[in-house]
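Work through this:
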Amino acid sequence: IMQLPVVYQKAKEQVFKIWTTIQPLLTVHVGLASSAKALIILEQCGKNKGYQEMDACGLHPEGGCCMLDGPEKIESTINMKSLWKNISVEGIDIIFSRDAGRYICDYTYYTSLYYGNGRAAFIHVPPLSKSLTAEFLGKALQTIILEMLKQCGKEREAQHKDNSLSVE
């Protein structure tokens, strides 16, 4: 678990470090959606351009862009729509989205999708409250992430079968 700063460049450096040093199967990013009340948002893709809002240091990316040579958007290898349709957590609504906003969350997500070849996920969560405790939200996230890992497992099995077929 790593907390990323609300600074574009530092967040990008940390994400790069995650992918080059840890080399995870999947990186799951969780960000605060302060406007969401009792709502978890599963984000499908990250966008490369449109980052004009200033970060905590008063800066924004050059050209409002994550990666100057990157594609317009990158889709997660996790099928968030399928996950959304097949998962439920009592006491909180879960929705599917294709727009994580144009701030640090979307910037971080795109960067992670870029460096991780799509093997990243982003979940927006509401602020904690009396009715939405950290323990409850933690259990909800655990349920969602376990389902994501099942998708990764199926993907790896399919790749393994493809590799073994091509070897024979």
Q: What stands out?
A: Confidence is low (pLDDT under 50) at residues 163-168.
